[in-house]
Design a protein that fits this description.
The longest helix is centred in the first third of the chain and has 9 residues, at 10-18. It contains four helices and ten strands; from the N terminus they run H-E-H-E-E-E-H-E-H-E-E-E-E-E. The chain has a five-stranded mixed β-sheet. It is 21% helix and 27% strand. By secondary structure, the chain is α+β, with helices and mostly antiparallel strands. It has one domain (10-164): Alpha-Beta Complex (YbaK protein), CATH 3.90.960. It has helices at 10-18, 35-42, 77-85, 95-102; strands at 24-27, 50-57, 64-70, 73-75, 90-92, 119-122, 131-134, 140-144, 155-158, 162-164.
Length: 165
Amino acid sequence: MNNTVTTLHPSVLAGLDRCGIEYRVFECDPDFADTAVFCEKYGYKTSQSANAIIAATKAEPVKFACCIVLATHKVDVNKKVSQLLGTKKVSFASGEQTVELTGMQIGGVTPFGLPNIPIFIDAAVFVNEEVVLGGGNRSTKVILNPRELEKLPGAQVIEALGILK
């Protein structure tokens, strides 16, 4: 079904396959994994690169969500994500929280293979025929039609989740 590459993070590969998601793997130099430098080096537009950002509530028990927005946008964590999670205070998860929750490297976090948390996808992501997302590490990316993201358990398409930078 897909070109299985062993460099994909194991939980990412399992998550993609479990959901029947159609994708391609793009191997990249880990030094160029961050969105802006990746796009410049490999000829992708930031408008077709999607970032998966983990948000966390401030109150105990902490609730997490994965927010997917285009690289041209930032997550509206203060209003939109707070509203979606039903709490007043939400921030971006710390690097330590993100790694502990996902088991993935910063710079490669992706919605595939996550524990059971909500996945909020900005509606703007769907203007693209293909988007680039992390592969769970800094040496791979996953390229797919954004409609494939709707196959993820807990995925919700949200209008104005992202704010243009």
